[in-house]
Each structure stands twice: as C-alpha cells, then as structure tokens.
C-alpha cells in the first residue's frame, strides 16, 4: 500500500493519514481528518478487543465490515473515505469504502486529487497476474 495523502490547511502540513488498525491491516483515510482519524482509532480498538476475545489474527473483511457499518449508520455525515488493505489467512486484500458505507474490493485503487493520474500510470503497466508473470510482475513501471 502506498500513499501520497496529506491533510493540509492552506500550505501548512497537518498530518499524514496512514493508520495501522491491526498488526496486519493498514488504512489510508481522506476527506475530513478528524472524522477519519477518530473512526480509524475506534476500529483499531474494537479489532484489538476482538483479537483478545478470539485469540486469532484480525481479518481484513472484518475490519471493512465494521467500518462500513459505522459509516452507514451516519449516512455519510462523517465525511471519511478509506482505502483499507492487509493480509490474513485468506490472502491479501484491498478495499475502498465511501463515506456512506459502500465498499468495493479491488486489485488496485487510487483516490484524491491525483487519483485519475495515478490510475493512468497503474493501468498503463497493468496486466493480470493470472496470465503469468507472478505477483512481482503484476505492474511494470519500466516503460
């Protein structure tokens, strides 16, 4: 997971928005920084309690479900967007959630002011790794 997201007020840098919400799960948040940070902190603490209760690693889909349920409850008024990624027993996952609670699982994603340019760069070198080449060959930036 890579990021180039920062929260800014004018030209003043405020805070990076990459959150570790479980030992195996990261999320990048956008839009309203306070809402996004508090939601990520809440999900992190809830996943920690769940890990203590189940004595097992957190699953990415569990984190996505928890975030989506909370965002749906507030009907988009929190103004937080997330890209959530991690690896667990069922493999590696990347999800994108919207502020109203909808979500999508994607092989790659891009968001923010440079989102379309980011998609263009990735799509120019993208090929399906199931066609051969392995995971390390999924995106070729040597063009």
Which short descriptors sum up this protein?
143 residues; alpha+beta; 5-stranded antiparallel β-sheet; two-stranded antiparallel ribbon; 7 strands; 28% strand; globular; disordered C terminus
Q: Can you put this structure into words, describing what you see?
A:
The chain is an alpha+beta fold and 143 residues long. It has 3 helices and 7 strands; from the N terminus they run E-E-E-E-H-H-E-E-E-H. A 5-stranded antiparallel sheet has the order 3-4-5-6-7, with helices on one face. A two-stranded antiparallel sheet has the order 1-2. Helix 1 crosses helix 2. The longest helix is centred in the first third of the chain and has 22 residues, at 33-54. The radius of gyration is 16 Å and the shape is globular. Residues 133-143 have low confidence and may be disordered.
**C-alpha end-to-end distance:** 21 Å
Q: Which regions contain 5 or more consecutive residues with pLDDT less than 50?
A: 133-143
Number of strands: 7
Order of helices and strands: EEEEHHEEEH
Shape: globular
Gyration radius (Cα, Å) is 16 Å
Helix-strand category? alpha+beta
- The percent range for helix content is 25-40%
Please work out how many helical segments DSSP would assign: 3
Strand order of the largest sheet: 3-4-5-6-7
- Largest sheet report: 5 strands, antiparallel
**Beta-strand percentage?**
25-35%
Q: Mean of residue pLDDT? A: 75
Helix-strand blueprint:
Layout lengths: L5 E4 L2 E5 L1 E5 L2 E7 L1 H22 L5 H14 L6 E9 L2 E7 L5 E3 L9 H11 L18
Helix pairs in contact: 1-2
């Amino acid at each position: 997971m890579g990021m180039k997201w920062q929260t800014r007020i004018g030209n003043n840098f405020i805070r990076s928005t990459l959150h570790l919400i479980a030992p195996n799960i990261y999320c990048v948040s956008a839009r309203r920084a306070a809402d996004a940070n508090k939601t990520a902190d809440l999900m992190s603490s809830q996943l920690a309690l769940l890990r203590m209760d189940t004595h097992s690693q957190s699953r990415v889909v569990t984190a996505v479900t928890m975030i989506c349920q909370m965002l749906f409850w507030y009907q988009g008024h929190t103004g937080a967007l997330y890209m959530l990624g991690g690896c667990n027993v069922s493999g590696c996952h990347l999800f994108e959630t919207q502020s109203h609670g909808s979500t999508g699982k994607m092989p790659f994603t891009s968001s923010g002011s440079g989102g379309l340019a980011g998609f263009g760069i990735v799509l120019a070198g993208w090929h399906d790794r199931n066609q051969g080449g392995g995971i390390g060959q999924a995106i070729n930036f040597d063009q």
